[in-house]
Predict the structure.
Amino acid sequence: MALAALDLTDREHDDFVRDHPNGHLMQTTPWGREKEHTGWTWRTVAVGRKGAGPDGTDEIAGAALILFRRTPVLPMALAYCPRGFVVDWADGEAVDALLAEVTKVAKANRGVLLRIDPAVRIDNPDIRPALESRGFTRTDPGDDAAKTLAQPALRMVTDIGDLDQLHKDLSQGTRQSIRKGEKSGLVYESAGREGVDAFYELMRITGERDGFGIRSKDYFTTLVDVLSPTDDIVISLVKLDHGAAADKARAAVADTRGQLEKAQAKREKYPSDKADRQVSQLEEQIAAKEKSIAEFDAEHAKHPDGQYLAGSVFATCGTRGSYLYAASSNEHRNLRPNYLMVWRIMQDAAAKGVKTFDFGGIDASEGLEEFKRQWNPERREYAGEFTKRVRPLSGRLIDLVVKIYKRR
């Protein structure tokens, strides 16, 4: 039976994308609705065999979500399939049918340039021949891929299918950072829309500290609104409960005093420089902890409900999870709240059947990249960005416009 265009509901489209090995969050209809907020329009396309599925349902062979961005003056648009197409690239018939339908829809929406960056690994033997034989040209990332490509091709992805093994494989320092958060009065919260305000304030602080622009609060609110009905997004927050932190510090002081008494008794019986140093170190630890107790008590008076130190936006698509945004306060960074936050997100995601945790692109700041490396990620490279001129003459013009825009 020949392949034909299918008219899928949003749910049918999203179910196919979530279940497909080449599916991605950015190919779901909620992502299209989110991008409306930033000036894009969108359409979905699917091909398959009508009535060939179980119980006479349609058998879907491929699908794509297409975003359209109109040029400011000319009646033309860029057609962009973020992390698409969702298709088996070894199935030439499906690729041809899907490309034909995408091209038809692109032209109907004044698209003159089609850009895609499939969520397919670069070592897949089918992807590049399939695209180049059909007129696509791979974008040269140049010296600064972050400015050249719409989405980074290099990713850091951690397998969370076996958390017990992952925890064993983490470095001692990473495990200690997780435990430090748990023992220091940090509280993890998995929030929804009600967490946007706190997260956005942390995002504003992070942007000011690290010198980058941030999206509007409405952007994050919309992102939560469109993904929440499918349970595909969570706002995570970590706050410091100063009262609990003070109590934990008092318990630590009591424990250290017990160690000090034993060390002093041992020194009296067996005097030595080593014994002197041990007693001195324990006395310094007690003094430091008592100082922190006073500080926590004072802050508890100012922040009786706690103080948010870290936040993030994590989204899922089937068995794949993506760490979309992360932010942190300037205070109490020594408590490593981000470590506790990521570990708890991993635990919750794994419980829902998520198998991979995508930390995002490698071309990030040095500090953020080092943080990602603490989680034993696999360095994963996607096939890259490819472009095809739907209308050759006007396509050259908009291609130039896009290149100029990316350099801004």
User: Anything to note?
Assistant: The mean pLDDT is 90.
